[in-house]
Write a sequence for this structure.
């Protein structure tokens, strides 16, 4: 409504003038109270007016209804008087007594006279309705008087007792003459006129009553209209008051908000808020101005601090960059120093270990042999320390990468156990291992690092165990897709768990937490009994974590320790045929060993192959079984047993008449027995503990499938005390080495393997040598004067095609992170580190032989 807005604005202006200095809360309260007062006043006025009118209408209606009820009574009384003679005749006919008839007659006359009185009163109350009825009332009263006189005359001489029949008939006759006379008919006519007048009056009163009811209904509607109108009026007034109050409150607040947003958006805190108000908004504006002034001051301070901080950050950044360059230079210097130290340490170590290895294979007396073994063991221990330090350096610098190649899990475990066969035998320890049947045969991972962890744990177990046993168990669990942390792969994921348990000195609980701390040992006192760098377990833990697992220890002081580590890997299908347990299925085998762990492992292995083992730790019990006629296809006996050793037990087996040809396999931790101890035992095989699973399987299969068991099987190859070369393929070898000692070690090692080699002292001599003569293999040192091995290799790769240049093997003391890859990137074909190990060099030359001769046409 456009026309309403000016009025609203005028109301707002009036309110602003009247209540401008009121507080906001008071303004809002006044607006609500005013709206409520208007609503109450309007509604009350409407209710009072409508209530008063409704009361008047209801009173008039009640009067009409009362008068209408009186008219109905009068009509009834007229009819009763009119038919009085007939009632009298009826009373006579019923035999009523004269006294009762007189009494009824008198009562009717009295009632009729009362009706006349009421009619006259009603006529005086409503003269407009009965202006011509007054003569009727007089005539009616005269009729009643004549009725009374006639009745009194008719009954005056009647006795008070019952009338006789003759008297009744006489009275009836008089009454009939009275009723049938002209006078009575005139009276009847008069009564009829009177009734008509009454009925007309009743109808008129009915119309008045209906009109009164209609008026009352309209009054009720008017009340509702008044209430609704009052509410609408109250809402309108409340809206006007609220609109005015809103302008008084909201307009200053909106202005305050707009000015504050403008200051914030512009960022100009020198401006101030301008508000014309006399309430809390004015106080708020003053507080906001104080805050803006505070912000302006703080902003200036922050701007100054920001400029200062930026300059400090710039200066510090330059310092950090300089420190970073210095740290990188120091790190490079450290790496170069470690590489140099590794090379310088490994170079003499190569001479020490190489010469002692060669010296050990010559004819020496026992004392000289002991000296050589001591030197060799000391050199190996020193090399282990160097390798641990280098490995730890690789791990700490994050430059140790794991390989992911398929390998045979059983061979990896057995090669680690083989290293400790002799140390365990020297301490008279039982060294056993068991690989669960459900473990995959071939897995994918870093075989060298897994073997390194196993060697570390087995070496510690044997070092800290003086009596008892050391047991290695390997179990596997197929992972579900939810447990697989390796990622999406088509190969089945496995969790491989390795457990090394010993019966050694154990570790106290308060020292177990130090086991996996670098350069820390459980016993770090000056009187400690066992040496070591304290890096072995730290390296093992880091390696297992890199392979998706972890390592834990459980130990009780004086009772031994159990180290467990696990890795996550996948099974690799190498296509090799699995073991065929059908050849052993159902075969009955007797197991005799005083060591419970050995019996447990042998039981598990033979049961996995389908055999039916029966085990005992008592040789006497085994003899009892055979004497009682128990039948066995094969027997495995331990040599070292108390009271009755394996040879003695085998001898008694041979003396039994029921099974003298029982095949017997003897297990020994001390090597093969001397021939004079065997006698005529005819052993089927002698195996050295710990027995390799694959070897035990092949041995049992061969024994049970051969028709003749006279041929013995030996698990230990014969050793020679003379320096005899092994059979080797013909290779033309050039040895590039500048160190004289290393030249001697390499040439004698090659001679031990059946090779001869020409010498070159640096890279330039290598290039000159291959121009004069064709070589199959070059054993290339990296660090050489005038031209190093890497430069010489690059030059050879540049000058000669791939199929026409020699097979180059890096032979270097550099063993820092990335040294192997640097050599391969330079063009070398293989890599061996110093000190040289004869088996590693033999494997490298064997690989070179396969590559060289497979590439020759024809």
């Amino acid at each position: 409504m456009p026309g309403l807005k000016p009025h609203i604005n005028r109301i707002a202006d009036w309110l602003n003038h009247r209540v401008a200095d009121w507080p906001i809360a008071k303004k809002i309260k006044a607006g609500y109270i005013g709206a409520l007062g208007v609503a109450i006043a309007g509604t009350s006025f409407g209710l009072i007016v409508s209530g008063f009118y409704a009361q008047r209408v209801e009173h008039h209606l009640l009067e009409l209804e009362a008068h209408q009820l009186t008219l109905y009574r009068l009509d009834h009384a007229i009819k009763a008087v009119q038919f009085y003679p007939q009632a009298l005749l009826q009373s006579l006919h019923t035999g009523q007594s004269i006294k009762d008839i007189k009494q009824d007659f008198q009562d009717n006359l009295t009632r009729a006279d009362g009706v006349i009185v009421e009619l006259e009163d009603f006529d005086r109350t409503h003269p407009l309705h009965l202006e011509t009825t007054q003569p009727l009332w007089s005539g009616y009263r005269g009729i009643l008087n004549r009725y009374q006189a006639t009745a009194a005359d008719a009954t005056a001489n009647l006795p008070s007792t019952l009338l006789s029949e003759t008297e009744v008939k006489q009275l009836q006759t008089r009454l009939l003459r009275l009723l049938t006379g002209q006078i009575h008919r005139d009276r009847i006519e008069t009564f009829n006129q009177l009734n008509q007048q009454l009925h007309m009056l009743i109808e008129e009163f009915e119309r008045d009553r209906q009109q009164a009811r209609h008026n009352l209904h309209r009054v009720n509607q008017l009340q509702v209209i008044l209430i609704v109108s009052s509410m609408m009026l109250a809402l309108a007034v409340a809206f006007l008051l609220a609109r005015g109050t809103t302008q008084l409150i909201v307009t200053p607040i909106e202005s305050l908000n707009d000015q504050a947003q403008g200051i914030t958006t512009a960022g100009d805190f020198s401006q101030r808020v301008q508000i014309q108000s006399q309430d809390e908004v004015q106080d708020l504006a003053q507080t906001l101005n104080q805050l803006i002034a505070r912000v302006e001051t703080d902003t200036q301070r922050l701007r100054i601090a920001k400029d200062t901080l930026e300059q400090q950050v710039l200066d510090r950044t330059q310092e950090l960059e300089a420190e970073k360059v210095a740290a990188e230079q120091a790190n490079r210097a450290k790496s170069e120093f470690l590489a140099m130290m590794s090379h310088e340490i490994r170079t003499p170590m190569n001479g020490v270990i190489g010469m002692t290895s060669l010296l050990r294979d010559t004819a020496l007396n026992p004392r000289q042999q002991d000296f050589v073994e001591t030197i060799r063991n000391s050199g190996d221990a020193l090399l282990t320390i160097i390798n641990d330090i280098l490995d730890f350096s690789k791990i700490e610098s994050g430059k140790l990468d794991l390989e992911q190649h398929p390998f045979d899990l059983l061979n990896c475990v057995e090669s680690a156990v083989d290293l400790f066969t002799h140390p365990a035998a020297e301490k008279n320890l039982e060294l056993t291992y068991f690989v669960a049947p459900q473990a995959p045969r071939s897995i994918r991972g870093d075989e060298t690092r897994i073997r390194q962890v196993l060697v570390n744990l087995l070496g510690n177990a044997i070092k800290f165990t003086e009596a008892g046993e050391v047991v290695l168990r390997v179990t596997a669990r197929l992972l579900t897709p939810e447990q697989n942390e390796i990622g999406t792969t088509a190969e089945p994921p496995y969790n491989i768990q390795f457990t090394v348990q010993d019966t050694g000195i154990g570790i106290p609980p308060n020292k177990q937490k130090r086991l996996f701390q670098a350069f820390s040992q459980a016993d770090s006192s000056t009187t400690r009994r066992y040496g070591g760098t304290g890096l072995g377990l730290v390296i093992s833990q880091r390696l297992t974590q890199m392979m998706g697992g972890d390592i834990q220890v459980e130990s009780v002081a004086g009772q031994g320790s159990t180290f467990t580590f696990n890795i996550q890997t996948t099974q690799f299908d190498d296509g090799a045929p699995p073991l065929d347990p059908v050849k052993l299925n159902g075969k009955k085998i007797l197991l005799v060993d005083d060591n419970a762990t050995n019996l447990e492992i042998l039981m598990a292995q033979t049961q996995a192959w389908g055999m039916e083992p029966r085990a005992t730790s008592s040789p006497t019990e085994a003899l009892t079984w055979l004497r009682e006629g128990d039948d066995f296809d094969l027997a495995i006996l331990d040599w070292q047993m108390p009271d009755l050793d394996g040879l003695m037990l085998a001898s008694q087996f041979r003396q039994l008449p029921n099974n003298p040809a029982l095949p017997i396999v003897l297990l020994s931790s001390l090597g093969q027995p001397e021939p004079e101890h065997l006698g005529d035992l005819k052993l089927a095989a002698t195996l050295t503990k710990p027995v390799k699973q694959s070897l035990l399987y092949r041995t049992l299969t061969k024994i049970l499938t051969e028709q003749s068991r006279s041929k013995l099987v030996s698990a230990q190859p014969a050793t020679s005390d003379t320096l005899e070369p092994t059979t080797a393929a013909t290779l033309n070898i050039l040895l590039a080495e500048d160190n004289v000692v290393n030249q001697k070690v390499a040439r004698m090692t090659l001679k031990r393997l059946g090779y001869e080699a020409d010498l070159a002292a640096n890279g330039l001599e290598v290039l000159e040598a291959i121009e004069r003569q064709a070589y199959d293999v070059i054993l290339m040192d990296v660090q050489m004067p005038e031209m190093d091995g890497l430069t010489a290799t690059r030059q050879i790769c540049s000058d000669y095609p791939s199929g026409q240049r020699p097979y180059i093997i890096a032979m270097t003391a550099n063993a820092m992170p990335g040294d192997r890859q640097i050599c391969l990137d330079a063009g070398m074909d293989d890599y061996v580190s110093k000190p040289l190990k004869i088996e590693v060099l033999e494997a490298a030359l064997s690989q070179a032989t396969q590559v060289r001769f497979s590439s020759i046409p024809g």
